[in-house]
Amino acid sequence: MEENSAYRSILHFQLGTETLGVGVSNVLEVLRNNGLTPIPRSADFVRGIVQFRGEIITVIDFSEKLNLHENEPTSGKVIIVFQIKTNEHSFKVGVLADDVKAVEELHESDIKTVDEITHYYNPEYLEGVVKLKEEFVIVLDVNKIFSDKDIELIKTTAKNDKK
After folding, report:
1. If I label 58, which of 4, 27, 124, 153 is the partner at 20 to 30 A Cα–Cα?
2. Beta carbons of 93 and 60 less than 8 angstroms apart
3. Residue from 33, 115, 128, 116 nearest 77 by CA
């Protein structure tokens, strides 16, 4: 497929009963979870740290971060490593997931805005919803999920911020 701004590659993954999607431009790698080093007295959504390409990165549980409390707990079989970029920061973070399902090439028009689910997800980081085969995938903008407080916590935990 030719590179066209109207198309986007979306990685979709399983998190308990939810299927979430993110732009592949933020995904560095998917790792098998061979164990984390827990961080005592850290935020509820921080599960620990792991070494990635010579760096220590913080690993979080999106179920906690996104307040998906009715969701089944994640098995955390895989860690999706993201490069997060905001106006002021660039850092790596790992996210626990049950499984990576696929990468799909989608036309921008396939991603639909759905007002009904914004009470579950913050509309600031919700890009929309796309129907893939027989399931809906909630597409998130991972660059907008973390607050300044979250970023400081992740930076302090892993010491991996690059301004």
Report:
1. 124
2. yes
3. 33
pLDDT tens digit at each of 163 positions of the chain: 445 568 889 999 998 888 999 999 999 999 999 999 998 888 888 999 999 999 999 999 888 887 765 656 667 899 999 999 888 888 999 999 999 999 999 888 888 887 655 555 566 778 888 888 888 898 988 888 888 888 888 877 766 444 4
Residue 111 structure tokens = 């991603």
Task: Tell me if 25 sits within 8 A of 142, measured CB to CB.
Answer: no
8 A C-beta contact, residue 52 and residue 31: yes
Strands laid side by side in the 135-140 sheet: 99-107, 7-15, 18-23, 135-140, 126-132
Distance CA 78, CA 13 (A): 10
Cα–Cα dist 68/96, whole Å: 14
Beta bridge partners of 82: 27, 93
Rounded distance between C-alpha atoms, residue 140 and residue 121, angstroms? 9
Question: Among positive and negative, which fits the CA dihedral 125, 80, 134, 1?
Answer: positive
Q: What is the pTM of this model?
A: 0.83
Q: Scan for tokens 């396939």, then name that residue.
A: 110
